[in-house]
# Entry
Amino acid sequence: MSARPVKHSVTLKGHRTSVSLEAEFWEVFQKLARDRGQSLNDLAAEVDASRAGDLGLASAIRVFVLEAVMARAP
# Structure
């Protein structure tokens, strides 16, 4: 597991923003976007729109990834 999160850029509502995620979360997030036929920006926007107001985007993406992985587990 990577020790430190790495910043990645995404565009939400026409504005660039960065999100710091560990490599493992970012890789699974990319795979989920590919599997769903979405761009990373579209999937990030979907996660952004569904998150609670006090939850940061990086945390929301981690929870999204975790829930997706758990849903696929037997």
The longest helix spans residues 57-72. The chain has a mean pLDDT of 94. Residues 6-72 form one domain.
